[in-house]
Amino acid sequence: MPYVNIKITKEGATAEQKARLIQGVTQLLVDILGKNPKTTIVVIDEVDTDHWGIGGETVTSLRRKR
Amino acid sequence: MPYVNIKITKEGATAEQKARLIQGVTQLLVDILGKNPKTTIVVIDEVDTDHWGIGGETVTSLRRKR
Amino acid sequence: MPYVNIKITKEGATAEQKARLIQGVTQLLVDILGKNPKTTIVVIDEVDTDHWGIGGETVTSLRRKR
Amino acid sequence: MPYVNIKITKEGATAEQKARLIQGVTQLLVDILGKNPKTTIVVIDEVDTDHWGIGGETVTSLRRKR
Amino acid sequence: MPYVNIKITKEGATAEQKARLIQGVTQLLVDILGKNPKTTIVVIDEVDTDHWGIGGETVTSLRRKR
Amino acid sequence: MPYVNIKITKEGATAEQKARLIQGVTQLLVDILGKNPKTTIVVIDEVDTDHWGIGGETVTSLRRKR
Fold it and tell me: Residue D33 — φ and ψ, nearest 5°?
Protein backbone atom coordinates (compact mmCIF):
# COMPACT_ATOMS: atom_id res chain seq x y z
CA MET A 1 0.00 0.00 0.00
CA PRO A 2 2.96 2.41 0.05
CA TYR A 3 3.08 5.48 -2.16
CA VAL A 4 6.42 6.71 -3.44
CA ASN A 5 7.08 9.94 -5.32
CA ILE A 6 10.44 10.41 -7.02
CA LYS A 7 11.37 13.82 -8.35
CA ILE A 8 14.31 14.12 -10.74
CA THR A 9 15.43 16.81 -13.16
CA LYS A 10 14.43 16.27 -16.78
CA GLU A 11 17.82 15.47 -18.23
CA GLY A 12 17.39 12.48 -20.47
CA ALA A 13 16.34 9.53 -18.29
CA THR A 14 14.98 6.85 -20.62
CA ALA A 15 11.66 4.99 -20.28
CA GLU A 16 13.69 1.84 -19.60
CA GLN A 17 15.61 3.51 -16.73
CA LYS A 18 12.37 4.80 -15.21
CA ALA A 19 10.83 1.32 -15.45
CA ARG A 20 13.86 -0.14 -13.64
CA LEU A 21 13.59 2.52 -10.95
CA ILE A 22 9.90 1.71 -10.40
CA GLN A 23 10.69 -1.99 -10.24
CA GLY A 24 13.66 -1.49 -7.88
CA VAL A 25 11.88 0.79 -5.41
CA THR A 26 8.85 -1.53 -5.26
CA GLN A 27 11.13 -4.50 -4.60
CA LEU A 28 12.88 -2.64 -1.75
CA LEU A 29 9.52 -2.07 -0.05
CA VAL A 30 8.74 -5.78 -0.37
CA ASP A 31 12.18 -6.90 0.85
CA ILE A 32 12.68 -4.46 3.72
CA LEU A 33 9.13 -3.86 4.96
CA GLY A 34 7.18 -6.83 3.61
CA LYS A 35 4.79 -4.55 1.71
CA ASN A 36 2.34 -5.88 -0.89
CA PRO A 37 3.67 -4.88 -4.33
CA LYS A 38 0.21 -5.08 -5.94
CA THR A 39 -0.96 -1.91 -4.20
CA THR A 40 2.43 -0.16 -4.15
CA ILE A 41 2.36 2.99 -6.29
CA VAL A 42 5.47 4.76 -7.55
CA VAL A 43 5.12 8.11 -9.35
CA ILE A 44 8.08 9.77 -11.08
CA ASP A 45 8.05 13.52 -11.73
CA GLU A 46 10.56 14.88 -14.21
CA VAL A 47 11.11 18.53 -13.44
CA ASP A 48 12.37 21.14 -15.91
CA THR A 49 15.86 22.41 -14.95
CA ASP A 50 14.41 25.97 -14.84
CA HIS A 51 12.08 24.78 -12.08
CA TRP A 52 14.63 23.02 -9.88
CA GLY A 53 16.83 25.04 -7.56
CA ILE A 54 19.72 23.96 -5.39
CA GLY A 55 22.05 26.30 -3.52
CA GLY A 56 19.67 29.12 -4.46
CA GLU A 57 20.29 28.66 -8.17
CA THR A 58 18.39 26.92 -10.94
CA VAL A 59 19.89 23.75 -12.37
CA THR A 60 19.73 25.46 -15.79
CA SER A 61 22.16 28.06 -14.49
CA LEU A 62 24.37 25.47 -12.75
CA ARG A 63 24.66 23.34 -15.91
CA ARG A 64 25.68 26.40 -17.93
CA LYS A 65 28.67 27.01 -15.64
CA ARG A 66 30.13 23.57 -16.02
CA MET B 1 -8.42 26.25 3.77
CA PRO B 2 -7.80 22.62 2.82
CA TYR B 3 -5.39 21.66 0.07
CA VAL B 4 -6.08 18.57 -2.01
CA ASN B 5 -3.80 16.98 -4.59
CA ILE B 6 -5.22 14.35 -6.93
CA LYS B 7 -2.85 12.30 -9.05
CA ILE B 8 -4.25 10.28 -11.95
CA THR B 9 -2.70 8.71 -15.00
CA LYS B 10 -2.97 10.72 -18.23
CA GLU B 11 -5.47 8.59 -20.06
CA GLY B 12 -8.03 10.92 -21.55
CA ALA B 13 -9.87 12.63 -18.66
CA THR B 14 -11.71 15.62 -20.13
CA ALA B 15 -11.63 19.21 -18.83
CA GLU B 16 -15.29 18.78 -17.93
CA GLN B 17 -14.57 15.64 -15.85
CA LYS B 18 -11.71 17.41 -14.05
CA ALA B 19 -13.97 20.40 -13.31
CA ARG B 20 -16.58 18.04 -11.84
CA LEU B 21 -13.91 16.35 -9.71
CA ILE B 22 -12.73 19.72 -8.35
CA GLN B 23 -16.32 20.71 -7.61
CA GLY B 24 -17.14 17.37 -5.96
CA VAL B 25 -14.08 17.21 -3.71
CA THR B 26 -14.58 20.81 -2.58
CA GLN B 27 -18.22 20.08 -1.76
CA LEU B 28 -17.24 17.01 0.31
CA LEU B 29 -14.92 19.16 2.43
CA VAL B 30 -17.76 21.63 2.99
CA ASP B 31 -20.34 18.92 3.77
CA ILE B 32 -18.25 16.63 5.97
CA LEU B 33 -15.85 19.04 7.69
CA GLY B 34 -17.56 22.42 7.33
CA LYS B 35 -14.56 23.87 5.48
CA ASN B 36 -14.71 27.21 3.68
CA PRO B 37 -14.81 26.52 -0.08
CA LYS B 38 -13.38 29.95 -0.96
CA THR B 39 -9.92 29.02 0.28
CA THR B 40 -10.08 25.32 -0.61
CA ILE B 41 -7.52 24.47 -3.28
CA VAL B 42 -7.65 21.33 -5.41
CA VAL B 43 -4.74 20.53 -7.74
CA ILE B 44 -4.93 17.69 -10.27
CA ASP B 45 -1.74 16.13 -11.65
CA GLU B 46 -2.04 14.01 -14.76
CA VAL B 47 0.91 11.65 -14.85
CA ASP B 48 2.32 10.01 -17.98
CA THR B 49 1.76 6.21 -17.93
CA ASP B 50 5.56 5.76 -18.26
CA HIS B 51 5.93 7.58 -14.95
CA TRP B 52 3.34 5.67 -12.95
CA GLY B 53 4.19 2.29 -11.49
CA ILE B 54 1.99 -0.21 -9.71
CA GLY B 55 2.99 -3.75 -8.79
CA GLY B 56 6.54 -2.83 -9.82
CA GLU B 57 5.52 -2.19 -13.43
CA THR B 58 4.74 0.95 -15.41
CA VAL B 59 1.13 1.51 -16.44
CA THR B 60 2.37 1.71 -20.05
CA SER B 61 3.54 -1.89 -19.74
CA LEU B 62 0.34 -3.01 -17.94
CA ARG B 63 -1.91 -1.47 -20.61
CA ARG B 64 0.05 -3.25 -23.36
CA LYS B 65 -0.71 -6.64 -21.81
CA ARG B 66 -4.45 -6.21 -21.77
CA MET C 1 -5.02 3.69 -9.30
CA PRO C 2 -5.36 7.34 -8.31
CA TYR C 3 -3.54 8.81 -5.33
CA VAL C 4 -5.16 11.61 -3.37
CA ASN C 5 -3.60 13.66 -0.60
CA ILE C 6 -5.84 15.86 1.56
CA LYS C 7 -4.26 18.39 3.88
CA ILE C 8 -6.39 19.98 6.59
CA THR C 9 -5.58 21.85 9.78
CA LYS C 10 -5.68 19.79 12.98
CA GLU C 11 -8.80 21.23 14.52
CA GLY C 12 -10.87 18.34 15.78
CA ALA C 13 -11.94 16.29 12.75
CA THR C 14 -13.15 12.92 14.06
CA ALA C 15 -12.07 9.47 12.82
CA GLU C 16 -15.63 9.02 11.54
CA GLN C 17 -15.46 12.25 9.50
CA LYS C 18 -12.10 11.25 8.03
CA ALA C 19 -13.49 7.82 7.11
CA ARG C 20 -16.43 9.50 5.33
CA LEU C 21 -14.04 11.80 3.47
CA ILE C 22 -11.96 8.83 2.28
CA GLN C 23 -15.10 7.02 1.20
CA GLY C 24 -16.53 10.07 -0.58
CA VAL C 25 -13.39 11.01 -2.50
CA THR C 26 -12.89 7.40 -3.63
CA GLN C 27 -16.49 7.24 -4.84
CA LEU C 28 -16.07 10.49 -6.83
CA LEU C 29 -13.11 8.98 -8.67
CA VAL C 30 -15.19 5.91 -9.49
CA ASP C 31 -18.26 7.92 -10.56
CA ILE C 32 -16.57 10.68 -12.56
CA LEU C 33 -13.51 8.94 -13.99
CA GLY C 34 -14.38 5.24 -13.77
CA LYS C 35 -11.32 4.52 -11.60
CA ASN C 36 -10.85 1.23 -9.78
CA PRO C 37 -11.49 1.83 -6.07
CA LYS C 38 -9.38 -1.16 -5.00
CA THR C 39 -6.13 0.58 -5.91
CA THR C 40 -7.27 4.12 -5.08
CA ILE C 41 -5.27 5.53 -2.18
CA VAL C 42 -6.36 8.53 -0.10
CA VAL C 43 -3.98 9.97 2.50
CA ILE C 44 -5.10 12.65 4.96
CA ASP C 45 -2.53 14.92 6.64
CA GLU C 46 -3.64 16.87 9.67
CA VAL C 47 -1.38 19.87 10.03
CA ASP C 48 -0.71 21.76 13.26
CA THR C 49 -2.17 25.32 13.10
CA ASP C 50 1.36 26.66 13.81
CA HIS C 51 2.49 25.02 10.59
CA TRP C 52 -0.28 26.27 8.30
CA GLY C 53 -0.12 29.78 6.90
CA ILE C 54 -2.66 31.72 4.88
CA GLY C 55 -2.45 35.41 4.04
CA GLY C 56 1.11 35.35 5.43
CA GLU C 57 -0.11 34.44 8.92
CA THR C 58 -0.31 31.17 10.83
CA VAL C 59 -3.77 29.74 11.51
CA THR C 60 -2.85 29.81 15.22
CA SER C 61 -2.57 33.57 14.99
CA LEU C 62 -5.76 33.91 12.88
CA ARG C 63 -7.83 31.83 15.33
CA ARG C 64 -6.62 33.98 18.24
CA LYS C 65 -8.03 37.11 16.60
CA ARG C 66 -11.51 35.79 16.22
CA MET D 1 18.76 20.26 3.75
CA PRO D 2 15.24 21.64 3.44
CA TYR D 3 12.98 20.76 0.54
CA VAL D 4 10.50 23.33 -0.73
CA ASN D 5 7.77 22.76 -3.30
CA ILE D 6 6.01 25.79 -4.79
CA LYS D 7 2.89 25.26 -6.85
CA ILE D 8 1.59 28.12 -9.00
CA THR D 9 -0.81 28.33 -11.91
CA LYS D 10 0.78 28.44 -15.35
CA GLU D 11 0.04 32.02 -16.26
CA GLY D 12 3.20 33.48 -17.69
CA ALA D 13 5.84 33.52 -14.92
CA THR D 14 9.21 34.07 -16.59
CA ALA D 15 12.37 32.00 -16.07
CA GLU D 16 13.92 35.07 -14.44
CA GLN D 17 11.03 35.39 -11.95
CA LYS D 18 11.28 31.70 -11.08
CA ALA D 19 15.04 32.02 -10.56
CA ARG D 20 14.44 34.96 -8.18
CA LEU D 21 11.83 32.93 -6.30
CA ILE D 22 14.26 30.02 -5.86
CA GLN D 23 16.97 32.40 -4.71
CA GLY D 24 14.65 34.26 -2.31
CA VAL D 25 13.16 31.18 -0.65
CA THR D 26 16.60 29.62 -0.19
CA GLN D 27 17.88 32.84 1.40
CA LEU D 28 14.90 32.90 3.82
CA LEU D 29 15.79 29.41 5.02
CA VAL D 30 19.37 30.52 5.59
CA ASP D 31 18.39 33.77 7.34
CA ILE D 32 15.56 32.50 9.53
CA LEU D 33 16.58 28.91 10.29
CA GLY D 34 20.33 28.88 9.57
CA LYS D 35 19.90 26.12 6.97
CA ASN D 36 22.72 25.16 4.59
CA PRO D 37 21.84 26.52 1.12
CA LYS D 38 24.03 23.93 -0.65
CA THR D 39 21.61 21.11 0.10
CA THR D 40 18.43 23.21 0.00
CA ILE D 41 16.21 22.11 -2.87
CA VAL D 42 13.37 24.22 -4.29
CA VAL D 43 11.04 22.72 -6.90
CA ILE D 44 8.46 24.85 -8.74
CA ASP D 45 5.40 23.22 -10.32
CA GLU D 46 3.46 25.24 -12.85
CA VAL D 47 -0.05 23.87 -12.98
CA ASP D 48 -2.45 24.23 -15.93
CA THR D 49 -5.44 26.45 -15.03
CA ASP D 50 -7.75 23.52 -15.95
CA HIS D 51 -6.07 21.51 -13.18
CA TRP D 52 -6.26 24.10 -10.40
CA GLY D 53 -9.48 24.57 -8.48
CA ILE D 54 -10.40 27.15 -5.88
CA GLY D 55 -13.89 27.71 -4.48
CA GLY D 56 -14.93 24.52 -6.28
CA GLU D 57 -14.17 26.02 -9.71
CA THR D 58 -11.24 25.73 -12.09
CA VAL D 59 -9.04 28.79 -12.55
CA THR D 60 -9.81 28.54 -16.28
CA SER D 61 -13.47 29.15 -15.48
CA LEU D 62 -12.68 31.93 -12.96
CA ARG D 63 -10.46 33.80 -15.44
CA ARG D 64 -13.20 33.66 -18.08
CA LYS D 65 -15.62 35.48 -15.77
CA ARG D 66 -13.39 38.42 -15.14
CA MET E 1 19.81 16.01 -6.56
CA PRO E 2 16.70 13.82 -6.58
CA TYR E 3 14.02 14.12 -3.94
CA VAL E 4 12.11 11.01 -2.90
CA ASN E 5 9.08 10.87 -0.61
CA ILE E 6 7.96 7.49 0.72
CA LYS E 7 4.60 7.23 2.46
CA ILE E 8 3.82 4.10 4.48
CA THR E 9 1.25 3.29 7.13
CA LYS E 10 2.48 3.52 10.73
CA GLU E 11 2.52 -0.14 11.60
CA GLY E 12 5.78 -0.81 13.36
CA ALA E 13 8.61 -0.18 10.86
CA THR E 14 11.83 0.07 12.88
CA ALA E 15 14.44 2.84 12.65
CA GLU E 16 16.83 0.25 11.23
CA GLN E 17 14.38 -0.72 8.45
CA LYS E 18 13.81 2.94 7.58
CA ALA E 19 17.58 3.52 7.45
CA ARG E 20 17.94 0.56 5.05
CA LEU E 21 15.13 1.92 2.89
CA ILE E 22 16.83 5.34 2.67
CA GLN E 23 20.12 3.68 1.82
CA GLY E 24 18.56 1.37 -0.77
CA VAL E 25 16.56 4.03 -2.61
CA THR E 26 19.56 6.37 -2.73
CA GLN E 27 21.72 3.56 -4.17
CA LEU E 28 19.11 2.81 -6.88
CA LEU E 29 19.24 6.44 -8.02
CA VAL E 30 23.05 6.22 -8.21
CA ASP E 31 23.05 2.85 -10.00
CA ILE E 32 20.22 3.44 -12.50
CA LEU E 33 20.44 7.18 -13.18
CA GLY E 34 23.96 8.09 -12.09
CA LYS E 35 22.64 10.63 -9.57
CA ASN E 36 24.89 12.22 -6.94
CA PRO E 37 24.02 10.64 -3.55
CA LYS E 38 25.34 13.65 -1.60
CA THR E 39 22.39 15.82 -2.63
CA THR E 40 19.82 13.02 -2.82
CA ILE E 41 17.11 13.53 -0.21
CA VAL E 42 14.73 10.78 0.94
CA VAL E 43 11.86 11.65 3.29
CA ILE E 44 9.70 8.94 4.88
CA ASP E 45 6.19 9.77 6.13
CA GLU E 46 4.54 7.31 8.47
CA VAL E 47 0.82 7.80 8.23
CA ASP E 48 -1.71 6.83 10.93
CA THR E 49 -3.98 3.97 9.75
CA ASP E 50 -7.00 6.26 10.40
CA HIS E 51 -5.59 8.63 7.79
CA TRP E 52 -4.87 6.11 5.04
CA GLY E 53 -7.66 4.89 2.82
CA ILE E 54 -7.67 2.21 0.17
CA GLY E 55 -10.76 0.85 -1.58
CA GLY E 56 -12.71 3.66 0.08
CA GLU E 57 -11.97 2.35 3.58
CA THR E 58 -9.46 3.32 6.24
CA VAL E 59 -6.65 0.87 6.96
CA THR E 60 -7.82 0.89 10.60
CA SER E 61 -11.13 -0.57 9.43
CA LEU E 62 -9.46 -3.06 7.05
CA ARG E 63 -7.12 -4.37 9.77
CA ARG E 64 -10.06 -4.91 12.13
CA LYS E 65 -11.74 -7.24 9.63
CA ARG E 66 -8.83 -9.58 9.33
CA MET F 1 -3.52 31.17 -5.00
CA PRO F 2 -0.10 29.50 -4.70
CA TYR F 3 0.53 26.54 -2.46
CA VAL F 4 3.92 26.13 -0.84
CA ASN F 5 5.13 23.14 1.15
CA ILE F 6 8.32 23.47 3.19
CA LYS F 7 9.92 20.36 4.66
CA ILE F 8 12.58 20.73 7.34
CA THR F 9 14.05 18.36 9.88
CA LYS F 10 12.60 18.59 13.38
CA GLU F 11 15.52 20.16 15.15
CA GLY F 12 14.18 22.95 17.31
CA ALA F 13 12.67 25.59 14.98
CA THR F 14 10.49 27.85 17.13
CA ALA F 15 6.86 28.86 16.43
CA GLU F 16 8.14 32.41 15.92
CA GLN F 17 10.69 31.28 13.29
CA LYS F 18 8.02 29.27 11.47
CA ALA F 19 5.66 32.28 11.50
CA ARG F 20 8.44 34.45 9.99
CA LEU F 21 9.08 31.81 7.31
CA ILE F 22 5.36 31.73 6.38
CA GLN F 23 5.28 35.52 6.26
CA GLY F 24 8.49 35.77 4.21
CA VAL F 25 7.57 33.16 1.61
CA THR F 26 4.11 34.69 1.13
CA GLN F 27 5.67 38.13 0.66
CA LEU F 28 8.10 36.77 -1.98
CA LEU F 29 5.16 35.42 -4.00
CA VAL F 30 3.48 38.84 -3.81
CA ASP F 31 6.66 40.78 -4.68
CA ILE F 32 8.02 38.56 -7.46
CA LEU F 33 4.87 37.14 -9.05
CA GLY F 34 2.13 39.54 -7.94
CA LYS F 35 0.18 36.72 -6.27
CA ASN F 36 -2.76 37.38 -3.95
CA PRO F 37 -1.59 36.71 -0.37
CA LYS F 38 -5.15 36.04 0.86
CA THR F 39 -5.34 32.70 -0.92
CA THR F 40 -1.65 31.82 -0.61
CA ILE F 41 -1.19 28.73 1.54
CA VAL F 42 2.12 27.75 3.14
CA VAL F 43 2.39 24.39 4.94
CA ILE F 44 5.48 23.47 6.98
CA ASP F 45 6.29 19.81 7.68
CA GLU F 46 8.79 19.07 10.43
CA VAL F 47 10.27 15.67 9.76
CA ASP F 48 11.84 13.40 12.38
CA THR F 49 15.61 13.00 11.79
CA ASP F 50 15.08 9.21 11.58
CA HIS F 51 12.82 9.82 8.58
CA TRP F 52 15.10 12.18 6.62
CA GLY F 53 17.94 10.78 4.57
CA ILE F 54 20.69 12.54 2.68
CA GLY F 55 23.69 10.85 1.08
CA GLY F 56 21.99 7.53 1.82
CA GLU F 57 22.10 8.08 5.58
CA THR F 58 19.55 9.29 8.11
CA VAL F 59 20.09 12.71 9.66
CA THR F 60 20.00 10.97 13.06
CA SER F 61 23.10 9.03 12.05
CA LEU F 62 24.80 12.11 10.51
CA ARG F 63 24.24 14.20 13.66
CA ARG F 64 25.74 11.44 15.83
CA LYS F 65 29.02 11.60 13.88
CA ARG F 66 29.56 15.27 14.44
Answer: -115, 0
User: Do F28 and D25 touch, CB atoms closer than 8 A?
Assistant: yes
We report the CATH number of the domain holding residue F53 as 3.30.429.10
Residue range of the domain that includes A12: 3-65
Q: How many domains does chain E have?
A: 1
ipTM for the complex shown? 0.97
For residue E28, give the H/E element and its range. Answer: helix E15-33
Phi, psi of D44, rounded to the nearest 5 degrees = -100, 130
Cβ distance D2 to F20 less than 8 Å, yes or no, reads: no
Instruction: Name the 3-class secondary structure at E7.
Output: strand
Tell me, what's the pLDDT at B63? 95
Strands A52-54 and A57-58: antiparallel
Residues D4, C61: Cα–Cα separation, whole Å: 23
The subunits that touch chain E, with at least 3 C-beta pairs less than 8 Å apart, are: A, C, D, F
- The average pLDDT across A22-47 equals 98
Task: Kindly tell me if the per-residue pLDDT of C65 is higher than 90.
Answer: no
Are residues C26 and E56 in contact, defined by beta-carbon separation less than 8 angstroms? yes
pLDDT (average), residues A42-62: 98
pLDDT reading at C38 higher than 90: yes
Chain C partners within 8 Å of F15 (Cβ): 50, 58, 60
The Cα F53–Cα F9 span in angstroms is 10
User: B3-9 and C3-9: which strand pairing?
Assistant: antiparallel
